[in-house]
Amino acid sequence: MANPTAQCIAEYAELDKEYEQLQDIHKEYSKKVDEVRAIQRKCMSHIAHQRYRMRQIGDSVRRANSHSDGEDKDALKILSKNMDERKSHFRELEEVLPHENGVYLKIILGSVNVSLLSKQDKYQYKEDYERFKFYLSMIILIYALLLYFINMRVIDAAFQFLLVWYYCTLTIREHILKVNGSRIKGWWITHHFISTACGGIFLVWPDGYTYNAFRPQFVGFAVYLSLVQLLQYYYQSGSLYRLRALGERRNMDITVEGFQSWMWKGLTFLLPFLVGGYIFQLYNAYVLYGLSRHESCIEWQVYALAVIFLVLFLGNMITTIAVIRQKILA
Amino acid sequence: MANPTAQCIAEYAELDKEYEQLQDIHKEYSKKVDEVRAIQRKCMSHIAHQRYRMRQIGDSVRRANSHSDGEDKDALKILSKNMDERKSHFRELEEVLPHENGVYLKIILGSVNVSLLSKQDKYQYKEDYERFKFYLSMIILIYALLLYFINMRVIDAAFQFLLVWYYCTLTIREHILKVNGSRIKGWWITHHFISTACGGIFLVWPDGYTYNAFRPQFVGFAVYLSLVQLLQYYYQSGSLYRLRALGERRNMDITVEGFQSWMWKGLTFLLPFLVGGYIFQLYNAYVLYGLSRHESCIEWQVYALAVIFLVLFLGNMITTIAVIRQKILA
Ligand SMILES: CC(C)(COP(=O)(O)OP(=O)(O)OC[C@H]1O[C@@H](n2cnc3c(N)ncnc32)[C@H](O)[C@@H]1OP(=O)(O)O)[C@@H](O)C(=O)NCCC(=O)NCCS
Ligand SMILES: CC(C)(COP(=O)(O)OP(=O)(O)OC[C@H]1O[C@@H](n2cnc3c(N)ncnc32)[C@H](O)[C@@H]1OP(=O)(O)O)[C@@H](O)C(=O)NCCC(=O)NCCS
């Protein structure tokens, strides 16, 4: 056998050659990254220009429409329709371009780019988000069930801290989803912000008469809510899976009509539980309001939570009705 | 003048031509993105392979070293040195390649890519992080000064909530920094985690004898800490600015020695304040421990905070000493 030292040196020399190759690849990679950036900027400024001209032409069309008739009106109608279609194309083009972070993400994350540049990545991210909610709902459910048997303010506090953390994390992820084009309604994000505050107020509610009076109902509500969230998971992830299959048009089992009928079935199943949750929220508000007028109530938390639960009830109810209305009309 | 309808249609037709151009650009962009991804993967797998082979050769070198002498030993020494240099080259190559998120970011953000792929972006992100700390320290300072004059548990609670949020946000940003190659010590991140918990425990500390006994000291500590953080800002952002100028080698005013001497001046100024802060933490631990043994103390928060402050004192002291030692040795 050869001298071990010589062998080491020989092996390293060979690796060295491969390293040169790597350097070439890396140089090419760096060049390509610069190229992509340049063309990305070009693309974005083109779209901005198109949007700008579209707005101008849109104004002209409106003006022309107000003093024209017959054939002209028809021609303008067709033009408007074309322009609307074009606008939806812009959205498609933008799907694979980076997006700027909103204020909230700028504050929390800074100006790091969280754009997902392919449909596949977006889908995975959304799936990940649903799974995260699923696991945490499970944990919250089990913890809440334990709270039935163990009654210690510290353990309650840890639970409430978990809620604060969970909802806070949700809002961050939902903002990332939004940057990446999800049409999630603003209210659901606001809802999670308010829930964060709600958890925080429960957290600082000192042990005492009112706390212990409301505690069983709080635990019951937490159990109910996490059960509903588990049901919601099946609806949302099912819908996500089907929408993806529809988008890919590869899986021919699923048609638009098929999706619609599945969605309505899912919604009809889910809705009673959701509405039950909203009514539970209203009931919480009612009970807390009663407690806040009790003579031995000295905590501000009671009244504050009554107001918050009322707001949650109203916002959820109104948004859900609006969503259903929209779906029926569509 | 021409018919307004005809004019609209003509203008749109012109825009249409430009749209075709945009489509071409977009197609090229999508193609380039795919190319970048492919070459990125290639680059990463090459580096992984080099690392793997390096480890193997490293083992051989160690084995060869144990039974060789004289010339061979010298040759192996040179080889080892070359290999170490090579490894630091890998790090440089990886600077512009995406990095996988750690567990914490995966949980909070999901698997979104937060890599900053250029030195410029990294620098900006770091600067942004320092500025964020600066502004928030300012806000915390002013708020803490207000607490001297206003004594209401709700307003204290809002302050403590702000601390929880602030430190929590810091840990997120620091993990993003870390993914992007910052050599920030693990302890400082842990420190901010513990500070988050610390804020949370202050938050749930109910109003009462012990809370009010410790409150003035808590407010004083908050004021002191935010002042120190403002000083730290000047050191960190100055050091960042100079390191960047060094890295660019364009600005010839700054040399490595110049940076070193500036750094030591900055550190000598900053250190007494830092150590003052650590001693303040130790003192907090001491006072809280005393309070926790008081007969009217029924709150677990008191003892828990005493332990936490002791841990913070120890961790900060040890890490700072280690950092200084490292800098002296370097
Ligand atoms: C009513 C409901 C079932 C409708 O769901 P849907 O059919 O997905 O509604 P939309 O078509 O408006 O969805 C638009 C987008 O928002 C998302 N979305 C809808 N509701 C969401 C929610 N509560 N949280 C997060 N994302 C939501 C959808 O996934 C979809 O995302 P996409 O654009 O990335 O594909 C759903 O909004 C829901 O479950 N709401 C109840 C939430 C609640 O009140 N929880 C507390 C219970 S007491
Ligand atoms: C001691 C100290 C001044 C040294 O700073 P330094 O010279 O930048 O230290 P290092 O050379 O080890 O820095 C390595 C990296 O960690 C970063 N870093 C160091 N301390 C940091 C801190 N406390 N927070 C965030 N980042 C820090 C540096 O910016 C540098 O980043 P880079 O790799 O991206 O360039 C600094 O660590 C410090 O201010 N610590 C005190 C924090 C503290 O205790 N606060 C509470 C006061 S009671």
How would the blueprint of this fold be written?
The structure is a homodimer of 330-residue chains.
Chain A: H1 4-66, H2 71-95, H3 103-109, H4 119-149, H5 153-179, H6 186-204, H7 209-248, H8 256-292, H9 300-329
Helix pairs in contact in A: 1-2, 4-5, 4-7, 5-6, 6-9, 7-8, 8-9
The structure holds coenzyme A (2 copies).
Structure description:
The structure is a homodimer of 330-residue chains. Chain A has 330 residues and is mainly alpha-helical. The first copy, chain A, has helices at residues 4-66, 71-95, 103-109, 119-149, 153-179, 186-204, 209-248, 256-292, 300-329. The model of chain A has no long low-confidence stretch (mean pLDDT 90). Chains A and B meet through helix 1, helix 2, helix 3, helix 4 and helix 5 of A and helix 1, helix 2, helix 3, helix 4 and helix 5 of B. The complex binds coenzyme A (2 copies).
Present as ligands are: coenzyme A
Q: What is the count of β-strands of chain A?
A: 0
Q: Estimate the strand proportion of chain A.
A: under 5%
Secondary-structure element pattern of chain A, one letter each = HHHHHHHHH
Report the helical percentage of chain A. over 70%
Instruction: Please give the largest β-sheet of chain A.
Output: none
CA distance, first residue to last residue of chain A: 79 Å
Class from secondary-structure proportions of chain A: mainly alpha
Low-confidence stretches of chain A: none
Please tell me how large the radius of gyration of chain A is: 28 Å
Envelope shape of chain A:
extended
Number of helices of chain A: 9
Instruction: Say what oligomer this is.
Output: homodimer
Summarize model confidence as the mean pLDDT of chain A.
90
Largest interface here, residues on each chain? A-B, 78 and 79 residues
